[in-house]
Specification:
By secondary structure, the protein is mainly β. The protein contains three helices and 35 strands. Strands 1, 2, 3, 4, 5, 7, 8, 9, 11, 14, 17 and 18 form a twelve-stranded mixed β-sheet that branches. A four-stranded antiparallel β-sheet has the order 25-24-27-28, with no helix packed on it. The chain has a four-stranded antiparallel β-sheet with strand order 32-31-34-35, with no helix packed on it.
């Protein structure tokens, strides 16, 4: 783009934000105050979390995209509405050294409500789930606005503020009367380098399970490749006695604007100890952003994480995410992973049947490892081994990240060319008639006393009936089974286990 055109565009931005903004500011604030008086929505607009970010768009124009990511509850005591619009201010950070001076923001702007996104419930604790998922609901909105920010000695301070926090918060004294403030420092080195701030990359956790280990990746993405350092820090309030929307947010001056953590009840909450967890307190890895805790008391806690970015040893910006973590009683989904198998028409090809189950849900993922370098993600599958030998066949199955595994050794000792030849040396198995009406005959020959088990399954691997499970003497045996009567299934699977050998055959009902 030609420099004269860029200069013209820059002048338009400066005119808008440094001249027109002063004329419109009083009108906007008046409209907001009128809205607060007559809108019921403002009474329920408790924000449960948020963060700020910025992105450099054009270095020559000093053009930046500023963002505010906010979270509200959409059910129960945390039900709320998003504000439309919200108001953000960017201050000269040098004013932070002069508390007696009046505060004049460099830039003030509003942001319109964007489309929102309801976050899927996630504990980040494998195999645990909320017994009443309808009781938890979080919605995310990402507000953005594009503005000019010129180079300035000392850098800037971006702030967004809102009253008030939810009254159910356990680690803040009188939380219903405490405001919320999100602040982002932008150093002069960051402005000079056309820097973009780090952005936390994962969706927020919707709840934490009491007395269960909680592990969450709280790391951020930095598009400039800068070094990131994480720490637990204090949540912020602000220096306004303002109800609802703060249309003229000011810059916090000192530690006085840290939220009043509750230390009366003996818990001694703080930014470094924000959640009741005496045995495994909340910690964050300063390099990876991995957050861990085992909380032993149900409740709602405000947790704040700061991420600072460095380039060549210089601090560029510090961002924070302030969020309510709600600790609930959770239920555990117990997995039982198992499989069975049978030999096909030659001794190297096997049919594998998944028999896994979960106590509270349906397993939806499978991964087979046949021990010969081949794998499959099909629930019930067929595999041909390359040669005789012993193979360690493993099945890993689960749901929603809750997984478990089982491994069995399969020994292939013969290379017989047909199943009939193989069975002739073992048990001479036969099932007839098939297709059938209501009765089938099962006959087999035992060379020695052997435990025999005969079962019926549907095509999903669910056991329907067990006809025999007993040790039988050597010799020829024949059984007559009533199968069709009362059965709705058109196709079923008969499994006969003789010793350690399994034989499966599909039964078709006429």
């Amino acid at each position: 783009m030609d420099f004269s055109i860029k200069l013209y565009i820059a002048l338009q931005f400066y005119t808008h934000y440094f001249i027109m903004n002063k004329l419109l500011k009083s009108i906007l604030i008046s409209l907001v105050l009128l809205t607060l008086l007559f809108s019921n929505n403002s009474k329920a607009s408790h924000i449960i979390g948020g963060e700020l970010f910025y992105r450099c768009i054009d270095e020559d124009l000093h053009l930046y995209e500023f963002g505010v990511k906010l979270y509200i509850g959409c059910t129960g005591a945390e039900f709320a509405y998003f504000d439309d619009p919200i108001y953000v201010a960017v201050y000269d950070s040098l004013e932070n050294a002069y508390p007696s001076s009046p505060f004049s923001p460099i830039v003030e702007f509003s942001m319109s409500l964007p489309p929102t996104d309801t976050i899927e419930n996630e504990t980040y604790s494998q195999c645990y789930f909320l017994s009443n998922p309808s009781g938890v609901c979080i919605v995310e909105a990402i507000y953005t606005s594009t503005n000019v920010l010129p180079d300035k000695v000392g850098g800037y301070y971006m702030t967004y503020q809102r009253c008030c926090r939810n009254a159910i918060i356990a680690n803040i004294a009188d939380p219903g009367g405490v405001g919320a403030s999100w602040n982002l420092s932008i150093t002069e080195d960051a402005i000079a380098a056309c820097n973009s701030s780090p952005v936390f990359k994962n969706y927020v956790p919707t709840f934490v399970c009491v007395n269960e280990r909680f592990e969450y990746d709280h790391s951020a993405i930095d598009y400039d490749g800068d070094s990131l350092v994480y720490e637990l820090c204090e949540a912020s309030t602000y220096n306004y006695n303002t109800y609802g929307i703060v249309a003229d947010p000011s810059i916090p001056l000192s530690y006085e604007f840290i939220v009043p953590y509750d230390t009366v009840a003996g818990s001694k909450y703080s930014g470094k100890y924000p959640m009741y967890a005496p045995d495994d307190s909340l910690k964050i890895d300063s390099q990876t952003g991995e957050l861990t805790v085992t909380s032993s008391k149900k409740g709602t806690y405000v947790v704040t994480v700061c991420v600072s970015e460095y380039r060549n040893g210089k601090l560029l910006s510090t961002n924070k995410r302030d969020l309510q973590y709600t600790v609930f009683s959770c239920a555990k989904d117990t997995l039982t992973i198992d499989y069975d198998y049978s030999i096909r028409m030659d001794s190297l090809t096997f049919e594998f049947y998944d028999k896994s189950s979960a106590t509270n849900d349906v397993i939806d993922s499978w991964q087979w490892d046949f021990g010969d370098g081949d794998t499959s993600n099909i629930q019930n599958t067929t595999h041909t081994f390359p040669d005789t030998g012993t193979y360690n066949v493993c099945l890993t199955a689960g749901l929603y990240g809750c997984i478990d595994s089982i491994c069995k050794q399969i020994k292939i000792r013969t290379n017989a060319t047909s199943l009939k030849e193989y069975e002739a040396n073992n048990f001479n198995f036969e099932v007839y008639p098939n297709p059938f009406n209501s009765t089938i005959h099962v006959s087999y020959q035992l060379n020695k006393p052997t435990v025999v088990k005969i079962e019926l399954y549907d095509l999903l691997g669910r056991e329907l009936e067990t006809y025999l499970d007993d040790e039988q003497n050597s010799g020829k045996h024949s059984l007559r089974l009533q199968i069709g009567e009362g059965r709705l299934e058109f196709i079923t699977v008969l499994k006969v286990t003789i010793g350690e050998r399994n034989y499966f055959t599909k039964l078709i009902k006429m």
